[in-house]
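From the pipeline queue, job 12 of 40. The input is one protein chain; the requested action is below.

Action: predict structure.
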Amino acid sequence: MSKSKKVTGKYIPSSSVHTHKPKTTHEDIAKSLGYNALPKNLKKSLIALYKSGKPIVTPHIWESRVSICRGCSYWEEHSSGTIARCTKCGCSSGKLLLQTSKCPLKLPRW
């Protein structure tokens, strides 16, 4: 026999009763994607991009790209290590997170 639940005086089969899932927060999504340590504004932008179906690289690929860029003569990084850009194309380190982006050099490094 199927279980049922009494709702406003009527019995409704359990299969019809909807349970509410807790709302997933930006922080939950950022953690699941491995971007929890990024600045809040960047996290929100990346999550919006992710939700829209735009491809974002994994943390491992991002770290690899940053490492490659740090070894390049066109890479300019502020002493704090939180602000960086490519002097060849002018992009910031945020571009490295986009799966569709590529290194601007004639022979791309990534």
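Job complete. The first strand starts at residue 4 and ends at 7.
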